[in-house]
Design goal:
2 helices; UDP N-Acetylglucosamine Acyltransferase, domain 1; globular; 183 residues; single chain; alpha/beta; five-stranded parallel beta sheet
Length: 183
């Protein structure tokens, strides 16, 4: 009986989340966590301008310039996503806590001016571990893993690699990503 009630509650929560986020596939996420995010975002107004669920401690600038892919960047705690020049997330990009991604930079001779630049591009199957900083105009190839605490100041156009450090450099090559849906 408890299992039936539990399934009904989760189904109800899932349906509520469909009301708040009708165009987003939330099957991989905990329904209760999604409802909490919806409450803080849609009811209390934390990150109300963001069209996908994000954690209440996350800050997002220019959400309209961010293409989120299939996952939820900023759902981890304390992320900062600055999309003023654009951020393009591929599919299955995992973003850890305390990640900062800044697509805009200041003019070095006049700090009040911002420099227009190419968007940050993070291709499919990347994993950005906790406390990573990614700076403007960076492009990351498919299946790039960024080690915790790394500062990414340049592009890494060859995929299947682990990068880390400050500034980030290639630590090791990886095998091709294995998609869980492919047998």
């Amino acid at each position: 009986m408890k299992e039936i009630i539990k399934k009904l509650i989760y189904r109800f929560l899932f349906l509520l989340n469909r009301i708040f986020y009708p165009k987003i596939d939330l099957r991989d996420y905990n329904s209760f966590d999604m409802l909490k995010a919806a409450f803080f975002q849609k009811v209390l107004g934390f990150n109300r301008n963001v069209y996908w669920p994000v954690h209440r401690s996350t800050t997002v600038k220019a959400a309209e310039n961010i293409s989120r892919g299939t996952r939820l960047p900023g759902f981890s705690k304390n992320c900062h996503l600055d999309g003023r020049n654009g951020i393009i997330f591929g599919d299955n990009v995992w973003v850890g806590p305390n990640v900062t991604i800044v697509s805009m930079n200041h003019d070095l001779n006049n700090y009040s001016n911002y420099i227009k630049a190419n968007p940050i591009i993070i291709k499919d199957n990347c994993w950005i571990a906790g406390n990573v900083i990614i700076l403007a105009e960076v492009e990351l190839a498919e299946h790039t893993i960024i080690a915790a605490g790394a500062v990414v100041t340049k592009s890494f156009l060859e995929g299947n690699q682990l990068i880390g450090g400050n500034p980030a450099k290639v630590i090791k090559k990886l095998n091709n990503y294995i998609d869980k849906d492919v047998e």
